[in-house]
Specification:
By secondary structure, the protein is of the alpha/beta class. Helix content is 39%, strand content 20%. The chain starts with a strand and ends with a strand. About 2% of the residues have low confidence.
Length: 368
């Protein structure tokens, strides 16, 4: 059984986390994710868990570090500048092979920026962000329902691979209100954690969680093990959605709130007789490289749309490997593109599509 509940994206992160067994939250307020710690302060004690508003984002992520080391399902949330402050701690957590979930409701930047929607933290999240060779499982919701269910999934993936997982959202997704079909009980899997530093409990030795390895060959072995984990994640956890792809000549590639806008633009283009589809990466790491490559080999051209100056764009171009044309349209600084803006770009790309010189540089458009 399930019931339909009207909720905001920021509330859905909280309810999905608690349904998945999250029992500790440490965070610090920052717009546009302030409702996450607010709802956590209200709901976590009811669930029998721990909520603490830390004195800073640096303190928050180190509290997450401690709870994860003890084997607790733990979460923090923040927005772009706050996530930047957490980067050292996130690197430590990744090095210690600890599971946790981090929610980033992105805002306009760089710097303090503004509180409007942005997607300019893609590089920071997908390419590491902190020091060292590490990766973060990254999921990108485009609806309030996905805020709920992808957050729950993130806990399972984090535990499965003993690796931090990030929900990379934006101010539109975090602030919008939609109905969610909430099940009475969500299916989740919390595995045994014999590695946790949670007391000796009759063991002959105590567990030690550590990210300091002075001997270079020993640290290299850790790095090799981490890379093997990332390879398994890339093989098993790719998630994406294809909309109107079967006969498409031009494929829009977008994630999060931008993908919703692109879906409308694609429908408008279809009404004008243009064969346009939408490819939506749901997992940003692992990125759906092979799926995009196959679309390129099938003759599709691409228009990447982001609320940035072209970050996911690089991964799409790497996936295509020069076999197809990849164009770009972006807005930044908290400006959200409209369906009509994207439709105009589709008209331009579609008009030169059949006769375009594939040897010419790919065109990128960022409005002034």
């Amino acid at each position: 059984m399930s019931k339909k509940v009207l909720m905001k994206g920021n509330e859905a992160f909280v309810r999905g986390a608690i349904a998945a067994g999250c029992r500790a939250f440490f965070g610090y307020p920052i717009t546009p994710q302030n409702e996450v710690p607010e709802y956590m302060s209200y709901l976590m004690p009811e669930a029998g868990g721990v909520f603490l508003q830390a004195e800073s984002e640096v303190a928050s992520i180190n509290m997450v570090y401690g709870a994860a080391a003890a084997g607790v399902r733990v979460m923090t949330s923040s927005s772009s500048p706050g996530i930047s402050l957490m980067q050292e701690g996130i690197s430590y957590i990744a090095a210690c092979e600890l599971p946790c979930v981090i929610v980033n409701v992105q805002r306009g930047g760089p710097g303090l920026g503004n509180i409007a929607a942005s997607q300019s933290d893609y590089f920071q999240t997908v390419k590491g962000g902190g020091h060292g060779d590490y990766k973060l499982i990254t999921l990108a919701p485009w609806s309030v329902s996905e805020c709920y269910f992808l957050t729950a999934l993130a806990f399972d993936l984090a535990d499965k691979y003993r690796n931090p997982a990030v929900i990379l959202a934006d101010a539109v997704v975090g602030q919008m209100i939609e109905p969610v079909e909430v099940p009475d009980k969500i299916e989740t899997h919390i595995p045994p954690k014999p590695w946790a530093a949670a007391g000796r409990h009759g063991r002959a030795h105590k567990n030690v969680v550590n990210s300091l390895w002075i001997d270079p060959p020993v640290l290299e072995e850790l790095n090799k093990r981490l890379q093997a984990t990332y390879a398994r994640i890339a093989e098993n956890e790719v998630r994406f959605q294809e909309i109107m792809i079967e006969d498409a000549d031009l494929v829009l590639v977008a994630y999060g709130a931008t993908a919703r806008i692109c879906r409308t633009a694609a429908e408008l283009a279809r009404a004008e007789g243009m064969k346009v589809g939408l490819f939506r990466p749901i997992s940003l790491f692992p990125f759906p490289i092979e799926q995009i490559r196959q679309l390129a080999l099938g003759g599709r051209r691409f228009l990447v749309v982001e609320m940035s100056h072209g970050q996911m764009l690089e991964d799409v171009r790497l996936a295509v490997e020069g076999t197809s044309k990849v164009d770009f349209y972006g807005r930044s600084g908290g400006v959200v593109p409209t369906p009509n803006e994207i439709l105009e770009q589709i008209r331009l790309k579609y008009s030169y599509g059949e006769t375009a010189d594939m040897n010419k540089p790919n065109r990128s458009v960022v409005p002034e």
